[in-house]
Amino acid sequence: MMVTAGCMGPLAGDDGEDGLEPDEYAPDGAELLVHFDGEIAHDEETQDLVEGLIEMDPHADEDELDDLEEEFEDETGLDITEFEEALAFGTLGDAPGEDEFGAIVASTWDEDDVVAAVEDEEGTDYEVTEHAGEDVLYEPVEEPEWGDALYVGVIDDGEYVLGDEGAVHDALDVAHDDADTVSGPVLDVYESAADGHVTAALEVPEDEIPDDGQPGQPDEIDFEALNEVEAVSAVYYTDDGNAGLEVQALVGSTEDAEDIKDTIDAAITLFEQMEDDDDLVDELDNITIEHEDRNVYVTYENDVDDILDALEEWEEQQQTSDPYDPAPMASYEWETDGDDVTLTHTSGDHIHGDEVYVMDDFGDVVADEDDFGDEFTAGDTVTIEDGATADGLMLVYDDGQHMQVLTEYQP
Question: Please, which pLDDT band fits residue 6 given cuts at 50, 70 and 90?
Answer without folding.
Answer: very low
